[in-house]
Specification:
CATH class of the largest domain: Mainly Beta
Number of strands: 30
Distance between the termini: 124 Å
Largest sheet: 5 strands, antiparallel
Structural class: mainly beta
CATH architecture of the largest domain: Sandwich
Number of helices: 0
Shape: rod-shaped
Number of domains: 4
Order of helices and strands: EEEEEEEEEEEEEEEEEEEEEEEEEEEEEE
Radius of gyration: 42 Å
Mean pLDDT: 94
Length: 364
């Protein structure tokens, strides 16, 4: 309120009607909240008795807010304190005011948390207990025999860390992460490599929804923190992403010369499945913690045919197949349907495709 007691300012819901009444319940001013949420209304008659005014807001449907209060200036009372500062740690309020007046500091709940006296040089330092470190607004007044000043307002430091986010859920596609936290804080999501993959602001209802870019679908861990306007960072929460990604294909695959054992490398913990060209499973096993695997083939594979190796992770995602040829230890069947032409210059017949045909005479 202006010192002359003629103008009342404040904030409220845009478009609502502001009504100010004095202690006797008489309406002494009305107006409308502007589109930016501010209002300024004239008071008639001027209010300078040091009392309180009740201020209500009424919307278009006739709903009336709970009353707010405004202190009326008292021309005989001290001027409001100035140069207000809250010390680091929220343990003391300093400022300037009329020498000899009593300083009273109250918190946002109206509780007195400190008192003192303005020194002869016009300064004061008032210890406050408990320390105020939540970023809330403190009110400071000066009082003497003539009355109490209008309050000076100062913000306490915000040293409180937000609580860790809760109710974390990652959707089935790994594209969206939701949860709950302190309203107005910034949610930051990082993957296991420490890369930020999404951020958002916690809504007024305490919920948040973060789009993950790129989608996180490898079964890894995400770290979620909340940061308030003062830069305080919450403890982290951890979420696991859905595992929709198969292991990389097996590498360094080889078969022993006798066709009994197949070895290679792959994702630790994944299941190794080996099949022949007919799709028959010849062996299974697990990749060790060091990434190596060794599988016994039953029966041994010695016909030179290709073998497929697939790795499957704990979520059931298969890798692309790797392929390796078994050793060829089986001799071809003897050639058949042999025919020599009439002049003895050509021999035809049938045999295993790809084999080399060698013809020798009886003396060879």
């Amino acid at each position: 309120m202006a010192d002359a007691g003629t103008v009342l300012t404040g904030r409220g819901e845009p478009g609502t009607t502001v009504t100010a009444t004095n202690a006797a319940g008489e309406i002494i001013g009305t107006g409308t909240v502007n589109a930016d949420g501010t209002f300024s209304i004239g008071l008639s008659p001027a209010q300078v008795d040091g009392g309180e005014l009740n201020v209500t807001l009424t919307d278009a449907a006739g709903n009336v807010s709970e009353p707010g209060t405004a202190l009326v200036p008292d021309p005989d009372a001290p001027a409001a304190p100035t140069d207000l500062v809250v010390a680091d740690g929220g343990i003391e309020v300093s400022g300037r005011g009329e020498a000899g007046t009593t300083v009273t500091v109250t918190n946002a709940a109206g509780t007195v948390i400190g008192t003192g006296t303005v020194a002869t040089d016009g300064t004061f330092d008032v210890a406050i207990a408990p320390p105020q470190i939540d970023g809330s607004q403190l009110s400071v007044t000066l009082t003497n025999d003539n009355g109490t000043s209008l309050p000076g307002l100062v913000a306490a430091p915000d040293l409180l860390v937000p609580e860790a986010p809760t109710d974390i859920v990652v959707d089935g596609a790994g594209a969206v992460l939701t949860g709950r936290g302190e309203a107005g804080t910034t949610t930051t999501v990082t993957n296991s490599a420490g890369t930020v993959v999404g951020s958002a602001t916690v809504g007024v209802d305490g919920s948040f929804s973060v789009t993950l870019q790129p989608a996180q679908s490898d079964g890894g861990s995400l770290t979620i923190t909340l940061t308030d306007a003062a830069g305080n960072i919450s403890p982290s929460a951890i979420a696991t992403t859905p595992d929709l990604t198969g292991p990389d294909a097996a590498t360094n695959v080889s078969v022993t010369a006798d066709g009994i054992v197949l070895t290679g490398r792959g994702e630790p913990g994944s299941t190794v499945t080996i099949t022949n060209s007919a799709g028959t499973v010849l062996g299974t096993g697990t990749v060790g913690p060091d990434g190596d695997f060794s599988i016994t083939l039953a029966p041994p594979q010695t016909d030179g045919s290709p073998l497929d190796i697939v790795l499957t992770d704990a979520a059931g995602n298969p890798s692309d197949p790797a392929s390796v040829a078994s050793p060829d230890l089986i001799a071809p069947n003897a050639p058949t349907d042999l025919v020599i032409n009439d002049d003895g210059t050509s021999l035809t017949g049938r045999g295993e495709p790809g084999t080399t045909v060698i013809v020798t005479d009886a003396d060879a």
